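Entry
Fold in token form

___
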Amino acid sequence: MIQEFLALGSGVLVGFSLGLIGGGGSILAVPLLLYVVGVTDPHRAIGTSALAVAANAFMNLIPHARQGNVRWAPAGVFAVFGVIGATIGSSLGKAYDGQRLLILFALLMIAIALLMLRKRAGGKGGRQLTPRTAAKLAGVGLSAGLLAGFFGIGGGFLIVPGLILATGMPMISAVGSSLLAVGAFGSTTAINYALSGMVDWVIALLFITGGIGGGWIGAASAARLALDKQKLTRVFAGVVIVVAVYMLSQSLAHLRGG
């Protein structure tokens, strides 16, 4: 009962951070599952996290689509090739030593935190899908999917700049369009892990449920705290770095002890 309550509460935290600052929150799903909820197997934590991230992305895709923020053609090409990468990446991730995978995951968290501190700007294009643009989307999508699948993350921090790089679309369109790919990558990774019995379905459901509630609260708070969003992002990035350092110390200690 305590573990289920912690899973629900952890989902609220991730959903709240996503709703509040608009990205990066899902990177905390794996450490929360490991060190708060008490999932002992790193691979099981990654598989469960991937399922929760996918569900969260698809739910957030709906309001963005209604607002016209999704460029379906570029997003579709990116997602299709990204799913190929995610299939390969998640298969490699399953076969990789769990503790060493967590060390790489922690290093990735630090990289994400640093990227969050940089201001990103979009362009004004992205409405027409040319053969050249499609080729760029395919290449970037394949690479982003490979990394997302290997680490069991949504990969939004890779997808948003990737879409802007390939098409020049505005930031709001990149954010909305990225959710299709995030959901596709997460679903692919979750299915791959589930086939090996590496998904805790009950915890994933509670995590998703908590994430919905947390997302609503975060989104409502974001409107009131819009002027302090950059400050909030800096604080969140600092939290991610602290958690990453903790993960590194725990994983290195486990390897030395093993």
Q: What stands out?
A: The radius of gyration is 17 Å.
